[in-house]
Amino acid sequence: MTEPFAVSVTVRGYETDSQGHLNQAVYLQYAEHARWSILRAAGIDQQDLIGKGVGPVALENTVRYRSELRAGDEVRVDCVFVWSEGKKFRVEQTITKADGTVAATVTGLGGLLDLKERRMVPDPAEYFRALASDPRVLGL
């Protein structure tokens, strides 16, 4: 099996809370950064999506915290799209410390919103496949 797409992030001091742990909201920001990065790696940017009249939407995100992160920690944020039939897809992400310890997992449910109709498109994978220069990055 090939390695999942991943980005590296260094935890910054201003992202921590009063106990010195990474603030809970920042885990979602790291996950979002990885999602946009995988789209760019596939050859899709925000303007491409807007040009097609669609935009990605997060319908649900679940974060499971496993090990604390502190300022200066180097982490890897994996990102895998899991496609199914219908309007929704899953995104599975793991935030892993440099020593291999899993700090958190983020599981999301998403879709593509038709920006004019304000409804989810019926087959988001087809939009991504059509826009991507390398759809394999997205598992398509």
Automatic annotation (TrEMBL):
- Protein name from the UniProt record: Long-chain acyl-CoA thioesterase FadM
Q: Which domain of life is it from?
A: Bacteria
Q: Which GO terms of the molecular function aspect are on file?
A: fatty acyl-CoA hydrolase activity
Gene3D superfamilies associated with the record: Hotdog Thioesterase
Pfam annotation, one family: 4HBT_2
Q: What is the lineage of its organism?
A: Bacteria, Bacillati, Actinomycetota, Actinomycetes, Kitasatosporales
